[in-house]
Amino acid sequence: MNNSRQLQRIARTFARQMSQAAEGQVTEVPSARFQRMKAIQKRFQIDDGLPVHLKGGFGDRILYLGTFGLTLIGVGLSVRTWIRLILKK
Length: 89
Description:
3 helices; mainly alpha; elongated
């Protein structure tokens, strides 16, 4: 029983410290990586009519068109295979 009271007292102290820490001002300066991530997020939030998978620039467009092209080739080859199987002589 004594251990549970000690645990409760430690938990209350920890919770009190956590709540007091949240009230203070943040003195930490965000890192350069965090600021870069925020800039990228801001760029993706702009309403410019582009779908989100193309907002990354030229590289995203190349990946998108390449994937689209490979999909069309795959569908074409599948249709050709089905036609050959159906019209087998």
